[in-house]
Amino acid sequence: MPKTIFFLLFFCAAFTAFSQSADSSHYSFKQAEGELRKIEQAVFNSKIESERFEANKAFLKLWDEVLAKPQSMQWAFDSIKGVSRLMSKDKKFRIIIWNMYRNDGTYAYFGFIQVNSVKVEKKGLFKKIKTTSYEVFPLSDRSATVKSPETYIGDNTKWFGMLYNAVIDCDGYYTLIGWDGNDKLTARKFIDVLYFKSDGTPIFGKDVFKIPKKSPKRIMFEFSSEVNMSIKYYEKDNRIVVSHLSPKDGSSFLEGQWQYYGPDGSYDAYDQHKDRWVVTEDIDARNPKSK
């Protein structure tokens, strides 16, 4: 058999096998997404708390099984409306999170981090070998036991739970913007930090903020649950702009009573200088960052 014909036959066979494998994966994920969507109804819509949490056990189990496959990182799961899915710009990780409302007004948070890890192994004096691996880290919410959220550092097994709505790629770490319903009186928003240890373990909280007389590992904003505040990232300026919070009517008697706090019409900004976020108070939010 001529070499050209042999090569074409081999190529066709390989392409057919690849197509069949891709079709199989597509069908598998589509089927799993349908099952997740069915369970989702009970997780988020049941009026009975015990039923919601019982359904969530099956929800977690199915997510765990689906995400164990590396190809799942490319599947959008965009029909699951109650679940947040955020991919970092460098495609290193995706974070999948959802929350569940408790009857007492608080929330419980659940999720996973999918990670494409790159590990460097030294061989001899000069040779380095890079290896890539796929890992999934379940997130265990421990926020109910944390007394000082701004100084808390935890890995995926001791995560300060919240819903994230933005991820910012930084030098050596990632900045996350998040929300926590907290309780019936107050809500909270965060500028959180995520980085990965050399063994791939995700760590939440890091000393990357430059604020006078404080060394926070994340920034927390607490305010009345009856109002809302704004946290926006402007990629062009590499700047996070936040609503400044103050007590209702500016009363000094209400200082520290967060259920009376809300936006006062002014704004603060966090700008990146080298590898740190530096705060600038009382900015003009109508104008772009000054050159």
Summarize the structure.
By secondary structure, this protein is α+β, with helices and mostly antiparallel strands.
Q: H/E series, N to C?
A: HHEEEEEEEEEEEEEEE
Sheet of most strands: 6 strands, antiparallel
Number of strands: 15
Approximate helicity band: 10-25%
- Structural class designation: alpha+beta
The 3D shape can be described as globular
Number of helices: 2
Q: Span from first to last CA?
A: 69 Å
Number of domains: 2
Describe the model:
The chain is an alpha+beta fold. It has 2 domains: 1-82, no CATH class; 145-291, no CATH class. It contains 2 helices and 15 strands. The protein has helices at residues 3-45, 49-67; strands spanning 84-87, 93-101, 107-123, 127-140, 154-155, 163-169, 174-180, 186-196, 202-204, 209-210, 219-224, 231-234, 239-247, 261-273, 276-283. The strands form 3 sheets. Strands 5, 6, 7, 8, 9 and 11 form a 6-stranded antiparallel beta sheet that branches. Strands 10-15-14-13-12 form a 5-stranded mixed beta sheet, with no helix packed on it. It has a 4-stranded antiparallel beta sheet with strand order 1-2-3-4, with helices on one face. Helix 1 packs antiparallel against helix 2. The radius of gyration is 23 Å and the shape is globular. The model is unreliable at 6-21 (pLDDT under 50).
Task: Pick out its properties.
40% strand; 6-stranded antiparallel β-sheet; 15 strands; 2 domains; 291 residues; alpha+beta; 5-stranded mixed β-sheet
